[in-house]
Amino acid sequence: MALELIQGRFSADYSASYFENLADGLSNQGLYIGPEIDKALAYQASKVNITVSHQDEVRSFTGIHPCNLPQNPVYWLVNYLTSKGVSLKKGQAIITGSYCGVIKVPMDTLVKFQYQGLGEMQLKFIMQHELA
């Protein structure tokens, strides 16, 4: 399981252009690699009910993989990179698409993510500021 961490890095009063956002990684802050899940179950996970809960709030989503099956983008990537002479190595992380898009969650609060039949993880997101 993995979560792509999304957050805009431009100040609230600045309206970034598409190309500025693209150069910024389209607001990708990073990737959280969660627990390992059963590969056979993951290969069948075209639809997954997802529950996101924190404090007294519970939200449910019907997750649908954008490429039908999560392994389809991996097959494409391996074939494409191979055609360019690039090989993947054990331990590299590949994310294959979002089941339900960007979900806003509160900071400094324990948040539980449950993927029905696959697994769950709990995280607390903490804002860190760099010192000048």
Explain what you see:
It is built from 3 helices and 6 strands; from the N terminus they run βαβαββαββ. It is of the alpha+beta class. The strands form 2 sheets. The chain has a 4-stranded antiparallel β-sheet, with no helix packed on it. It has a two-stranded antiparallel sheet with strand order 1-2. β5 and β6 form a beta hairpin. The model has no long low-confidence stretch (mean pLDDT 87).
Order of strands, main sheet, comes to: 4-3-5-6
Proportion of beta-strand residues: 25-35%
**Count of DSSP helices?**
3
Poorly predicted sequence stretches spanning 5 or more consecutive residues? none
Secondary structure: elements and pairs:
Layout: E1 2-6, H1 18-23, E2 28-33, H2 39-43, E3 47-54, E4 57-64, H3 71-83, E5 110-115, E6 119-124
Antiparallel strand pairs: 1-2, 3-4, 3-5, 5-6
Q: Which properties best describe this structure?
A:
two-stranded antiparallel ribbon, 18% helix, 132 residues, 3 helices
In short:
The strands form two sheets. A four-stranded antiparallel sheet has the order 4-3-5-6, with no helix packed on it. The protein is globular.
